Amino acid sequence: MSQRDTAIHLVAGGLAGTAGAVVTCPLEVVKTRLQSSKGVGIPQPPSHSGTASTRRVCSKIPKHQVQQCARAGHARTTSRMSLIQCIRHIVQTEGPRALFKGLGPNLVGVAPSRAIYFCTYSQAKAILNQHIPPDTPIVHLSAASAAGFMSCTMTNPIWFVKTRLQLDGQNITALQCIKRIYAKTGIKGFYKGITASYMGISETVVHFVLYEGVKARLIAARSGGVPSDTRSPRDFVEFMAAGAFSKTVASCIAYPHEVARTRLREEGDKYRKFWQTLQTVWVEEGYRGVYRGLGTQLVRQIPNTAIMMSTYEAVVYLLTTHFNSSFYENT
């Protein structure tokens, strides 16, 4: 793969990730809130939040436990809300801008993250195709693993700040959030939850292996098994469908790691390690706890992945044809 092809994948990956992130940001905020131990909204004192039963229970326990009790009741209540109710609750209690909390770090991180991912993926696939049977599942799996590891390692601090902003109810800026984290935990604090991110590579692997397989079958069905370097609007619609399908399956399989990652990024020391976090959530909340927010995640991932993959393919195709690159002839 030439340097020009590498640059094309960097640009395409960055633009694809940015487009998906902007459109689906409100759903990302709701999903993160649902995954957290605090629930959708920001807990209020017991006299103003929680159900009547929650307030009665809180009145019978020591004062230092009242806030914790109210928070638990609030989390249970808001976790039962529908997606529309969650969005309405956030808008009513924090204003419409709260639906776009963390968008700044998201935009800062999504372009380099997707650029690193797609570039690493395409580079790794090109290298592996030269040494083992090309375009086989093992090639796609290995390339996706390498891309996921590189992307997680390079951009984890950005996603950590984004999650903290989405969980915070004080409308602090990204810079204030960064200063607060650094003052408490130093540089090491920005990598809290990275183990869960590494576990999440399995989702990415399943996603891209399925996507490449479905994409190859669609292209073969359209062209009769003869490779073509041209693309029609129907091709990109099919790429959107393939991306949405593959991401949905992958998300369902690997979703618990996302709950663990969000809990690890919360303030406090209750959640310390990946497996300890999953065990704690399972014991305290059951199987529903490790899948909290899955519905919102699927609703968000379908348009996000469809937009991202179709944008990626479209940008690669446009730049490739503009610069007369041979990328599509070799894949």
Description:
With about 325 residues, the protein is mostly helical. The chain has 15 helices and no strands. It has helices spanning about 5-25, 25-35, 50-60, 65-80, 85-95, 105-130, 135-165, 175-185, 195-200, 200-225, 235-255, 255-265, 275-285, 285-290, 295-320. Helix 6 runs antiparallel to helix 7 (about 135-165), helix 11 (about 235-255) packs antiparallel against helix 15 (about 295-320) and helix 12 crosses helix 13 (about 275-285). It is globular and about 55 Å long.
What would you say about this model in short?
With 331 residues, the chain is mainly α. Helices cover 73% and strands 0% of the residues.
Helix and strand topology:
Elements: H1 3-23, H2 25-35, H3 52-58, H4 66-79, H5 83-94, H6 103-131, H7 137-167, H8 174-185, H9 194-199, H10 201-223, H11 233-254, H12 256-264, H13 274-285, H14 287-290, H15 294-322
Helix pairs in contact: 1-6, 1-15, 2-15, 3-4, 6-7, 7-8, 7-10, 10-11, 11-15, 12-13
